[in-house]
Task: structure prediction
Amino acid sequence: DTLRAEQNLENVIRDAKNAVIGRHDFSELISPNTEQIRFDEIQDEMRTAIASTTRDVYGIEVELVGFKRIELPEALTAKVFDRMKTE
Result:
């Protein structure tokens, strides 16, 4: 059914996202130095990580993966912004 398919696809995407982002420094996502930011490369890595599973298992070709938002636990948010201001 559709609900189960969506849940399975969400799991594949979440696993790929966590694996890819875990290999990158946080400064590649948020930095006052725009030359350090690697959104495009990270998004391409995530798309590549899910492409074979979504194609082979679900018959879906993923063409684009993007960030909607970046969330941090509240305890870290203030520290991150303080550090960014300092840098």
About this structure: The radius of gyration is 16 Å. The chain is about 60% helix and 0% strand. The mean pLDDT is 87.
